[in-house]
Amino acid sequence: HAKEMGSETNKKSPFFFTKSPSAYVPSGSTIPYPPGTKNFHHEMELVVAIGKPVFETDIEAAKLAIFGYACGLDMTRRDLQMEAKSKGLPWDMAKDAEQSAVLSEIASVETIGHPTSGLIELSVNGEVRQSGDLRALVNSPVELIAYLSNYYHLGPGDLIYTGTPSGVGPVLPGDQIEGHIQGVGTISLGISD
């Protein structure tokens, strides 16, 4: 997806942004088309849920800090993102919209283990738009946790959306989004006026 958006990837220095608690919405919800955009995009992602406090850790300890995994949608005001990106500005207005972090039920590590491969797919109104494999993630969930733990104290309840396959695209009022990750779960979202 980074290449699709004209960005470079750097495994040693992953790029992050944050979302406010007001961004969270559970799978199965219907959300209004957000204000301030004419180009609202879907991004299907594997989400890792932190279960234990972790700070300045290595890969092995990062893995032990994981509670589980979920399906996520990072809904993005793409026009605002591209404008901010072109000016070298933060992406907050694009990425941190209310109800823009959709989350499925979290499947515990005890139940599903640590998924490292498997189909990740999203459709809009029955048409497949994104299809990839977890093996294509630039950084694994444990790598992301270890990296972030050098800058933040991570703890129970923290969620990390790990990246999306190519094929992101716009949604419109009336659209129904469905997604799944093999071995993890399913997610859905409706868009209203």
From TrEMBL:
Keyword Signal part of the UniProt annotation: no
Pfam families: FAA_hydrolase
Presence of the UniProt keyword Metal-binding in the record: yes
Cleaved signal peptide residues: none
Keyword tags: Metal-binding
The Fumarylacetoacetase-like C-terminal domain, residue ranges: 1-187
GO molecular function: acetylpyruvate hydrolase activity; metal ion binding
Listed name of the protein: Fumarylacetoacetase-like C-terminal domain-containing protein
Organism: marine metagenome
